[in-house]
Amino acid sequence: MVFLRRGLLAVLGMTWAAALVWAWWWFDGYHNRTFERPAHFAAAQVSPPFAPGRIQVMHVWQAGCPCNAGHEAYIADMTRRFSAQGVRFVRSGSRAAVEGVLAGLPFWPMPEGWSDWPGGPALAIWDAEGKLAYVGPYSDGTSCNSDSSFVEPVIRALLQGRSVNITQQDTVACLCELKE
To answer: What is the pTM of this model?
Structure first.
């Protein structure tokens, strides 16, 4: 009887370990990918969602993506803070229903030239003159906050009237493929 219990515990332990390895692969290995910017990002000729005159941010979102969980609170906070400073926001990517601050943003269809966008959650930022200033994820890794954000330094610099052009570097982030 003791031998049977030990065998059963060993099988349960191996099953648990295998499940953890699979979960790590599924989340970290499957969703963590390089945000590679194809050549069309270098051209930076994609017009912003609104007429130039204010800084504009396009949140690229895929509803149901497990990567969203590490970004939602930060995006809500960042969008509220910078909206109060005159930055305009839209959302793009998935047309599926979204919650929170993103639900109140206008939907802007992904520009045709960006049909191979690497995934979401990510964003694009235009300066007040309508020039693309940043394309990429919110941060490296699976979650984002004010300290790890790539976005805040870009928006702060643009609000101070400085020029920014970060459309070429590649980074690894948690991304899901965009689907309608």
So the answer is: 0.77
